[in-house]
């Protein structure tokens, strides 16, 4: 008798781990986006300069910037329902304007987001120096602080995305809470000389200095568009991503305008411009000391540091997901697309980004550069301009995309809003470019170099597209799809 042994079935190899899907709700995504903007840092560190240049009409500049970006979001979110890849900006641009523009946009996104994050390690070092000196009278070197920050941010990105969302939620509540505390003190005491709505009078808004205010205001929203990067990890992304985008724009626009108005009321319409010009770095600290108490000023110093950390973590997560998408496309090496089996995070992309940040930080330190005036401003500025250029290209891509597909979206969302947003964003980029010296404090030569980075990177991306089409046609064919 022949005995046939039963076949042992071999289990199919398990699929490689992917990102943790269905994890992020609307509030989680909004926390990432608003934290990237660093509201407390923007208000305490930049708004006084906007007031000194634009006068009491400065709050209206932040409202106008918010309205412009809300118009941009109309077409942007309409397209997000039809382009579902992880490439966000570059996928939209590739689908609307063609693959060469998309590859140029991909390179620009990587440089832009890295510039926005890596420069902020200089701010982390200088802000921590200021906080320690203010609270304890001690002086600490900035480099160890920045390096410790690199490790902390790497760990936050290494952990699961819901861990990062919880951390950012706590930090965002802290930084906005201290500004709300200031607002409560000013409103309860009626300001320095009563409460005034002169900030919104046309005569105070339509002044030459408003152009500079608008440049600062648009810069303050940088990173709000990163909602779509988290699409693969979102719950019901067709609803949560657009909601988070509108919440982020509305919150930032209204909160910025309200907080700047509060700062003006704390000194009075007649005195605030001089106060902001004489000592911009301490305008908010003086206001909260006067209307709340010295203990609140100490808390504000601490929360500025945590605000910077929140911004770094938010940008780090965004960069990792862009790198993951490009590795999936075959543009970056495949090993960068590895996902951690437990935390479901793009941990190799995070490690690569951290190493790049360390190299840049150490390079500026070795050159004897100032962490704020050079590492922050010189690295951030081309990053900011790069992201604004991406917004412009994405707005321009929307009507071209919808012309080529069958859809049920209205003409307002697919043509009118994107065209209006394109014009307004072009104006915004022009304002930032013509006032770039206010952002950098650098020489004309340095400013020209910084302005040239974004267009040079985009052109380099076009050259990369030409090379991919010739040498790797399969990779080129599937790019952006």
From TrEMBL:
The chain crosses the membrane at residues 29-54, 60-80, 101-124, 136-155, 167-188, 200-224, 244-264, 284-315, 347-367, 379-402, 414-433, 445-466. Residues 1-21 are annotated as: Disordered. It comes from the Bacteria. Keywords: Cell membrane, Membrane, Transmembrane, Transmembrane helix. The keyword Membrane applies. Pfam families: AA_permease_2 (PF13520). It is found in: Cell membrane. Its main location: membrane. It is a multi-pass membrane protein. PANTHER family: AMINO ACID PERMEASE, AMINO ACID TRANSPORTER-RELATED. This is APC family permease. It comes from Streptomyces endophyticus.
């Amino acid at each position: 008798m022949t005995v046939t042994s039963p076949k042992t079935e071999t289990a199919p190899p398990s699929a490689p781990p992917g990102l943790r899907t269905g994890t992020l709700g609307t509030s989680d995504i909004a926390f990432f986006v608003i934290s990237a903007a660093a509201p407390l840092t923007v208000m305490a560190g930049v708004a006084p300069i906007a007031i000194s240049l634009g006068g009491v009409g400065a709050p209206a500049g932040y409202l106008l910037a918010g309205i412009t970006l809300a118009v941009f979001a109309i077409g942007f979110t309409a397209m997000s329902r039809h382009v579902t890849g992880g490439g966000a900006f570059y996928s939209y641009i590739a689908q609307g304007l063609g693959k060469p523009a998309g590859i140029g946009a991909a390179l620009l996104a990587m440089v832009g987001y890295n510039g926005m994050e890596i420069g902020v390690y200089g701010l982390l070092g200088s802000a921590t120096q200021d906080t320690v000196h203010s609270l304890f009278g001690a002086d600490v070197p900035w480099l160890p602080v920045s390096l410790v920050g690199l490790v902390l941010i790497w760990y936050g990105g290494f952990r699961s995305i819901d861990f990062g969302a919880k951390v950012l939620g706590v930090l965002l509540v802290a930084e906005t809470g201290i500004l709300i505390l200031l607002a409560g003190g000013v409103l309860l005491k009626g300001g320095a000389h009563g409460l005034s709505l002169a900030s919104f009078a046309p005569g105070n808004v339509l002044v030459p200095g408003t152009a500079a205010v608008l440049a600062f205001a648009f810069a303050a929203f940088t990173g709000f568009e990163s909602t779509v990067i988290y699409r693969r990890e979102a719950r019901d992304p067709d609803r949560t991503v657009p909601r988070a985008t509108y919440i982020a724009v509305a919150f930032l626009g209204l909160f910025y305008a309200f907080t700047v108005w509060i700062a003006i009321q704390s000194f009075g319409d007649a005195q605030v411009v001089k106060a902001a010009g004489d000592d911009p770095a301490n305008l908010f600290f003086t206001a909260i000391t006067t209307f709340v108490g010295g203990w609140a000023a100490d808390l504000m110093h601490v929360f500025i540091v945590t605000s910077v950390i929140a911004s770094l973590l938010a940008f780090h997560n965004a960069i990792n997901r862009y790198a993951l998408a490009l590795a999936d496309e075959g543009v970056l090496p495949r090993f960068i697309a590895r996902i951690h089996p437990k935390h479901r995070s793009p941990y190799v992309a995070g490690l690569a980004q951290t190493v790049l940040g360390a190299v840049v930080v150490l390079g500026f330190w070795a050159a004897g550069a100032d962490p704020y005036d050079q590492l922050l401003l010189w690295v951030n500025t081309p990053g900011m301009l790069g992201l604004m250029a991406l917004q412009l290209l994405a707005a321009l891509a929307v009507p071209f995309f919808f012309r080529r597909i069958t859809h049920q979206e209205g003409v307002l969302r697919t043509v009118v809003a994107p065209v209006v947003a394109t014009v307004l964003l072009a104006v915004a980029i022009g304002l930032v470019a013509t006032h770039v010296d206010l952002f950098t404090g650098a020489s004309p030569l340095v400013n020209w170099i910084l302005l040239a980075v974004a267009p040079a990177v985009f052109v380099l991306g076009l050259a990369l597209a030409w090379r991919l089409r010739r040498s790797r046609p399969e990779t080129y064919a599937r790019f952006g799809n």
